[in-house]
Amino acid sequence: MRLERLSLNQFKIFLTFDDLIERGLTKDDLWHDLPRVHALFHDMMYEASDELGIELEGMLLVQVHLLQAQGMFVIVTQSGNHHLEYDDYVEMKVTLDESRELIFYFQDFEHIIQVCSHLNEIGMNGGTVYHMDGRYYMRLHDYDVQGYNREHIIAILSEFSNPSIVTSYRLDEYGKKIFNNEAIEEVNRLFK
User: Fold this and answer.
1) Domains in the chain: ranges and CATH
2) Which residues form a coiled coil (predicted)?
C-alpha cells in the first residue's frame, strides 16, 4: 500500500491486486462482500492516519477507482465538519468507479515498438501513446481490447512494461500524445 498526501484534508492510497490478496480480498470481493470491504477501508484509514499524521474525524468522502490491471486507488477527502457527538465515529461516503482501460508505462521507446509488434500479430491496431516525465505510456481503451483475450493482452504488455497508476485524465492534461487512437498500427508502420 502506497500513500500520498494531496493537501491538508486529502490523501491518496494505492493498492495493487497483490496488496488486496495479502489482505485476503479479491477484486470480486470489492463488489460483493460489504463487511470485508468495510473492514479493509477501516484498516486503510487507520494506517493512513498513522503514517501521514492526519487526525481523521467527521465526514470522509472516499472515491475508489479500480484500475483494470493495476489495482485500485482511493482518494480520501476529509470534510470540514469535525464536531460530532461520538468521539470515535467516522462517517464515510464511498463512491466506486471501475476503469476498463489499460495503462502501462515503458522506460524505453524500443519496448513500445516490441509490444506493438506482438499486439499487431494478434490483430490489434488501436491505443494511444504518450510521453510524460521521462516515460512512455500506452493506453488501451475498452473498445481497443474488445473481442480479444484481455488477460493475454495484459500478459504481453507486462512483458515489456509496468502497470501504471497514472490516470488517463492526467495523461491527457500533462502528457504529450505521440500517437493517437491507432498507435499500434502507426508504430508498426513506421518502425518495422
Assistant:
1) 2-99 (no CATH), 102-191 (3.30.70.1950)
2) none
- Count CA atoms closer than 13 A to 84's CA, side-chain side: 15
CA 164-3-105 angle, 5° bins? 10
**Residue 48 vs residue 79, higher pLDDT:** 48
Strand ranges (DSSP E) for the chain? 2-7, 10-16, 58-67, 71-78, 90-99, 102-106, 128-132, 135-140, 162-163, 176-179
Q: Please write the tens of the pLDDT for every residue from 115-151.
A: 999 999 999 999 999 999 999 999 998 889 888 988 8
Sign of CA dihedral 180, 147, 25, 77: positive
